[in-house]
Amino acid sequence: xxxxxxxxxxxxxxxxxxxxxxxxxxxxxxxxxxxxxxxxxxxxxxxxxxxxxxxxxxxxxxxxxxxxxxxxxxxxxxxxxxxxxxxxxxxxxxxxxxxxxxxxxxxxxxxxxxxxxxxxxxxxxxxxxxxxxxxxxxxxxxxxxxxxxxxxxxxxxxxxxxxxxxxxxxxxxxxxxxxxxxxxxxxxxxxxxxxxxxxxxxxxxxxxxxxxxxxxxxxxxxxxxxxxxxxxxxxxxxxxxxxxxxxxxxxxxxxxxxxxxxxxxxxxxxxxxxxxxxxxxxxxxxxxxxxxxxxxxxxxxxxxxxxxxxxxxxxxxxxxxxxxxxxxxxxx
Length: 332
Known about the structure:
By secondary structure, the protein is α+β, with helices and mostly antiparallel strands. The protein has helices at about 1-10, 35-50, 65-75, 95-105, 120-130, 150-165, 180-190, 210-220, 235-245, 265-275, 290-305, 320-330; strands at about 55, 60, 80, 90, 110, 115-120, 140, 150, 170, 175, 195, 205, 225, 230-235, 250-255, 260, 280, 290, 310, 315. It has a two-stranded antiparallel ribbon. Strands 3-4 form a two-stranded antiparallel ribbon.
């Protein structure tokens, strides 16, 4: 009689045990009735807020000892899970697994509305807002322009455009960067590391983002569309540069003369006027230039290369401006 009452009490509980040993809370199947009981106790602890494992370094507490051990690595800096492709280390195995996608190029999270795929679920969730039209308030507003950001970290990085702050310095060449990630990518130029290989051709890259952009050459994908005209681009940075043609925005300002530019690369080239620096030297005649495209023009004189061809006649030119002049005079 007592056993019957005990079973009646269990079945009336929200954490009831069924004869098939299936947890009613998460559908997990347990091998024995005892293991199911232990498993249900875990659920009860979650709902009761019971956290017996306290961190000795901060005020955080955890339900089980395993989570406390993982948390302690944030204090000790221990990174037990090492990537065998690069020198990165991680405190949790799940973080290493997520990182490995960078090397494999795997993008297991496809968008159901368009052809885009993503390496992380959070990136897909953020992308889906474009299709759903969901408005997310961006509280972190720039005081210099009208841009706003979801996260304060993104605002801090953006502010470097206005301040020109570049706190990360390369130990090899002295080049400065506004972001630590940009410095790390740059250092690979010196070390020659190229962990990211294209699956369609033999090209290798030091940065995963460069590989992703390169892959669009093979697929023909141009996911970045201009909202002002019908032009499309294979890289978001190219779209941003293009949009400034429409807006007239010139966020890159010279600290020497106050002249402003729409592209960071143009500002860097301009600064060489003040410094007198000419890093681009011809290996044929020794002539040096502050801008790389000027060196390329000179090299065509040496090689005789004429890559700009008129599609109306057979004429070819070494420079694009000469081709444009030819079309204007003879074909317009």
